[in-house]
Amino acid sequence: MHARLMPRGGGVAIYAAFWLAVGLCSPNFDAYWGLWLASTVILAVGLIDDRVSLPWYAKLAGQLVGALIFAVWGGRIEFVTHPLSGAPVYIGAWGWPLMLLWLVSLANMVNLID
After folding, report:
1. pLDDT in tens, 53-67
2. 96 lies in some domain
3. In terms of Cα–Cα distance, which of 42, 36, 32 is closest to 100?
4. Of 36, 21, 25, which Cα lies nearest the Cα of 75?
5. Rounded to whole angstroms, how far apart are CA atoms 114 and 7?
6. CB neighbours (10 Å) of residue 59?
7. In total, how many domains does the chain have?
8. Which of 44, 63, 41, 42 minimizes the C-alpha distance to 52?
9. Do residues 9 and 16 lie in contact, with contact meaning Cβ atoms separated by under 8 Å?
Protein backbone atom coordinates (compact mmCIF):
# COMPACT_ATOMS: atom_id res chain seq x y z
CA MET A 1 0.00 0.00 0.00
CA HIS A 2 2.79 2.46 0.92
CA ALA A 3 5.97 2.93 -1.12
CA ARG A 4 8.09 3.39 2.01
CA LEU A 5 8.04 2.30 5.63
CA MET A 6 5.27 3.84 7.69
CA PRO A 7 5.37 4.26 11.47
CA ARG A 8 2.99 2.05 13.43
CA GLY A 9 1.48 2.31 16.87
CA GLY A 10 1.78 6.08 17.33
CA GLY A 11 -1.59 6.04 19.04
CA VAL A 12 -0.02 4.13 21.94
CA ALA A 13 2.17 7.13 22.83
CA ILE A 14 -0.78 9.52 22.68
CA TYR A 15 -2.94 7.14 24.73
CA ALA A 16 -0.23 6.58 27.36
CA ALA A 17 0.63 10.28 27.66
CA PHE A 18 -3.02 11.29 28.01
CA TRP A 19 -3.83 8.70 30.68
CA LEU A 20 -0.61 9.38 32.56
CA ALA A 21 -1.54 13.06 32.69
CA VAL A 22 -5.09 12.24 33.82
CA GLY A 23 -3.75 9.89 36.48
CA LEU A 24 -1.31 12.47 37.80
CA CYS A 25 -3.59 15.50 37.63
CA SER A 26 -7.08 14.23 38.39
CA PRO A 27 -8.11 13.61 41.98
CA ASN A 28 -11.19 11.65 40.83
CA PHE A 29 -10.51 8.99 38.20
CA ASP A 30 -14.05 7.61 38.59
CA ALA A 31 -15.31 10.37 36.30
CA TYR A 32 -13.12 9.04 33.47
CA TRP A 33 -14.12 5.34 33.28
CA GLY A 34 -16.29 5.79 30.19
CA LEU A 35 -13.63 7.77 28.38
CA TRP A 36 -10.96 5.24 29.40
CA LEU A 37 -12.99 2.31 28.09
CA ALA A 38 -13.89 4.13 24.86
CA SER A 39 -10.30 5.20 24.20
CA THR A 40 -9.05 1.68 24.92
CA VAL A 41 -11.47 0.24 22.34
CA ILE A 42 -10.42 2.85 19.77
CA LEU A 43 -6.73 2.18 20.51
CA ALA A 44 -7.29 -1.57 20.09
CA VAL A 45 -8.95 -0.98 16.71
CA GLY A 46 -6.00 1.16 15.64
CA LEU A 47 -3.45 -1.43 16.75
CA ILE A 48 -5.32 -4.22 14.97
CA ASP A 49 -5.49 -2.03 11.85
CA ASP A 50 -1.73 -1.42 12.04
CA ARG A 51 -1.18 -5.17 12.22
CA VAL A 52 -3.61 -6.56 9.62
CA SER A 53 -4.84 -3.49 7.66
CA LEU A 54 -8.56 -3.61 8.41
CA PRO A 55 -11.05 -2.58 5.71
CA TRP A 56 -12.41 0.94 6.18
CA TYR A 57 -15.85 -0.25 7.30
CA ALA A 58 -14.41 -2.48 10.04
CA LYS A 59 -12.26 0.37 11.31
CA LEU A 60 -15.23 2.76 11.24
CA ALA A 61 -17.41 0.22 13.07
CA GLY A 62 -14.80 -0.20 15.82
CA GLN A 63 -14.39 3.56 16.19
CA LEU A 64 -18.17 3.99 16.40
CA VAL A 65 -18.36 1.29 19.08
CA GLY A 66 -15.77 3.22 21.10
CA ALA A 67 -17.64 6.49 20.62
CA LEU A 68 -20.95 4.85 21.56
CA ILE A 69 -19.38 3.47 24.75
CA PHE A 70 -18.43 7.03 25.65
CA ALA A 71 -21.98 8.20 24.86
CA VAL A 72 -23.53 5.47 27.04
CA TRP A 73 -21.30 6.56 29.94
CA GLY A 74 -22.65 10.11 29.61
CA GLY A 75 -20.24 11.72 27.17
CA ARG A 76 -21.77 14.40 25.01
CA ILE A 77 -21.21 17.87 23.62
CA GLU A 78 -23.65 20.28 25.26
CA PHE A 79 -22.49 23.50 23.65
CA VAL A 80 -19.87 25.05 21.43
CA THR A 81 -18.34 28.46 21.98
CA HIS A 82 -19.11 31.14 19.41
CA PRO A 83 -15.72 32.17 17.96
CA LEU A 84 -16.47 35.91 17.85
CA SER A 85 -18.50 36.57 20.97
CA GLY A 86 -17.25 33.75 23.19
CA ALA A 87 -20.86 33.00 24.14
CA PRO A 88 -21.95 29.37 24.51
CA VAL A 89 -24.18 28.07 21.72
CA TYR A 90 -26.26 25.18 23.08
CA ILE A 91 -26.77 22.47 20.49
CA GLY A 92 -29.40 20.30 22.16
CA ALA A 93 -30.11 16.99 20.44
CA TRP A 94 -27.24 17.56 18.00
CA GLY A 95 -24.82 16.93 20.87
CA TRP A 96 -24.88 13.13 20.48
CA PRO A 97 -24.24 12.91 16.72
CA LEU A 98 -21.65 15.69 16.89
CA MET A 99 -19.83 13.90 19.70
CA LEU A 100 -19.78 10.67 17.67
CA LEU A 101 -18.51 12.55 14.62
CA TRP A 102 -15.88 14.36 16.71
CA LEU A 103 -14.45 11.20 18.32
CA VAL A 104 -14.37 9.23 15.06
CA SER A 105 -12.77 12.22 13.29
CA LEU A 106 -10.09 12.51 15.98
CA ALA A 107 -9.31 8.80 15.74
CA ASN A 108 -8.90 9.12 11.98
CA MET A 109 -6.74 12.24 12.28
CA VAL A 110 -4.37 10.38 14.60
CA ASN A 111 -4.38 7.46 12.17
CA LEU A 112 -3.32 9.78 9.34
CA ILE A 113 -0.40 11.30 11.25
CA ASP A 114 1.00 8.21 13.00
Report:
1. 899 999 999 999 999
2. yes
3. 42
4. 36
5. 6
6. 20
7. 1
8. 44
9. no
Q: What CA–CA distance (Å, rounded) separates 98 from 77?
A: 7
Q: What is the pLDDT of residues 63-110, one digit of tens each?
A: 999 999 999 998 889 999 999 999 999 999 999 999 999 999 998 888
CA distance 63 to 43: 9
Residue 4 located in a structural domain: no
Residue 94 domain boundaries:
10-113
**Does residue 76 belong to any structural domain of this protein?**
yes
Cβ-contact 42, 15 below 8 angstroms: no
Q: Whats the size of the chain, residue-wise? A: 114
Mean pLDDT of the chain: 89
H runs (alpha helix) in 6-113: 10-25, 33-52, 56-72, 95-113
Q: Is residue 3 part of a domain?
A: no
Q: Which amino acid is at 6?
A: M
Predicted TM-score of the model (pTM): 0.81
Q: What are phi and psi of 78, to 5 degrees?
A: -95, -35
